[in-house]
From TrEMBL:
UniProt entry tagged with the keyword Oxidoreductase: no
Catalysed conversion reaction: Hydrolysis of terminal non-reducing N-acetyl-D-hexosamine residues in N-acetyl-beta-D-hexosaminides
Ranges of residues in domain Beta-hexosaminidase bacterial type N-terminal: 30-87
Gene3D superfamilies xref list: Chitobiase/beta-hexosaminidase domain 2-like (3.30.379.10), Glycosidases (3.20.20.80)
InterPro entries: Beta_hexosaminidase_sua/sub (IPR025705), GH (IPR017853), Glyco_hydro_20_cat (IPR015883), Hex-like_dom2 (IPR029018), HEX_bac_N (IPR015882)
Family as reported in the entry's similarity comment: Belongs to the glycosyl hydrolase 20 family.
Enzyme Commission code(s) on record: 3.2.1.52
Name of the featured protein: beta-N-acetylhexosaminidase
Signal peptide span: none
Organism (species): Lentzea miocenica
């Protein structure tokens, strides 16, 4: 459990001990699990693996209080005497961060790695390309970033409005930047999964190399589903094989994302060809649930179920491993209340309580499906989140609720919101996270008059 791990048995009625560091030993047990014992003799961590030690250290940090989450200043010297035995419910505890629609500088991605680690989340899915921008340096095809990494303007609010921001937007990561992010995350036992989206959401690539597309056009300045997609010429398949070769060279993760969503016409041939290429590279393809409509997929393909839970159930029954991320429950760009004060209100209302109430295991499963439910991820799309401050507002504290759902047993704690307010929000304050207050946005977090599209 992330906010206050359980089960917890306190020694000597909650007596405080002097904190003098810790000792770690490895033991057998569930992956990511640990036992933490704090007493007058010091802190002993029995970790089931290296990730378990990291999880135990994050719990120790929580026990030391909010001051332990500050980068500098006087550190705590006492810790409760206690024994904590803990392990995660799911092995895939992920967050998708869309850095394509609005680019986040490398420093902000590294900060989110730290925030994921603090919440015992262990997968960062980077959505690196879309119609509105290409963020991955491909040395063989330099125009992808020279042309495709920036756009002339951006819709400000929902696409059904007439407003535009009136300024260009852009940015990209060099391969060295991404290797740095990968290593920074690896040291915190977080896997970074890259995604190059095909065959739709590809207008930035088509702007750079028009021969890839069915139609031409520049980097898109609007939001929503774009009818312009990649063609299925063999030269296009070869182009993307080369792109994915460089992607797999930079990202050592077992899993490689290839998108496959919202492509009018469902150009399945391209998706299957690149999925097979990923497998030949010794990796596992990972796609949004529309890939199930692309025809037979390679063994090992992982499906992200975003259009509800039903596609995930279908995928499990077909033998695919699944990550649950249904938009109705864990799309953190969706509005957080019915209030008109919510900035650019889009999607269905998804409150903090809604996120905490969700169970990643759908009711329709029997346990006999040939595929495995690996876990779930929360998705943070950034069409309407044009800065790190806006991402913070959308993500937190709902991401804390998601983290607890992914770690803890299925039973819900009626005191969750109270514990969050008393214990965890002060930690977020110490970390400098500009979260949405529980009673609504602060004056500077509102965007009055900017239209959204609430459902």
């Amino acid at each position: 459990m992330n906010l206050l791990p359980r089960p917890v048995s306190y020694v000597d009625g909650g007596r405080l001990c002097e904190y003098r560091g810790w000792e770690t030993v490895l033991v057998d047990g569930p992956p990511g699990g640990y036992r933490l014992l704090s007493s007058d003799d010091g802190v002993l961590i029995e970790a089931n693996d290296a990730a378990g030690e990291m999880n135990a250290l994050q719990t120790l940090r929580q026990l030391l209080g909010p001051q332990a989450f500050r980068a500098a200043g006087e550190k705590p010297v006492v810790i409760p005497a206690c024994e904590i035995v803990d392990h995660p419910r799911f092995q895939w505890r992920g967050v998708m961060l869309d850095v394509s629609r609005h680019f986040l500088p490398k420093r902000e991605v590294l900060r989110y790695v730290e925030l994921l680690s603090a919440h015992k989340l262990n997968v960062l899915h980077l959505h690196l390309t879309d119609d509105q921008g290409w963020r991955f340096e491909v040395k063989r095809y330099p125009k992808l970033t020279e042309v495709g990494s920036w756009r002339e303007d951006s819709r400000f609010g929902d696409r059904r409005s007439a407003g535009m921001a009136g300024r260009p937007h852009g940015g990209f990561y060099t391969q060295d930047d991404l290797r740095e992010i990968v290593e920074y995350a690896r040291s915190r036992h977080i896997a970074v999964i890259p995604e190059i989206d095909i065959p739709g959401h590809s207008q930035a690539a088509i702007a750079a190399y028009p021969e890839l597309g069915v139609h031409g056009g520049g980097v898109w300045t609007d939001w929503g589903v774009n009818e312009r997609v990649l063609n299925t010429d063999e030269s296009t398949v070869d182009f993307y094989r080369n792109v994915f070769d460089e992607l797999m060279d930079v990202f050592p993760s077992e899993v490689i994302g290839l998108g496959g969503d919202e492509a009018p016409g469902h150009e399945g041939e391209l998706v299957r060809a690149i999925a097979k290429h990923v497998v030949r590279g010794g990796r596992r393809p990972y796609g949004w649930d529309e890939v199930l409509e692309s025809g037979p997929l390679p063994v090992g393909t992982i499906v992200a179920s975003w259009r509800g839970v039903e596609p995930g159930i279908t995928a499990l029954r077909e033998g695919h491993d699944v990550v649950m991320c249904p938009e109705q429950h864990v799309y953190l760009d969706y509005r957080q209340s019915e209030s008109l004060d919510e900035p650019i209100p889009v999607g269905t209302v998804t409150t903090l309580e809604d996120v905490y109430a969700w169970d990643p295991v759908p009711a329709g499963l029997t346990g006999e499906e040939p595929g495995r439910l690996l876990g779930a991820q929360a998705n943070i799309w950034t069409e309407h989140l044009d800065s790190a401050r806006r991402v913070d507002y959308a993500a937190f504290p709902r991401l804390a609720a998601f983290a607890e759902v992914m770690w803890s047993p299925a039973e819900k704690d009626p005191q969750f919101v109270q514990r969050l307010a008393e214990h965890h929000l002060p930690r977020l304050d110490a970390l400098g996270v500009e979260y949405r207050p529980l009673d609504g946005p602060l004056p500077w977090q509102k965007l009055p008059g900017v239209p959204g599209f609430p459902r």
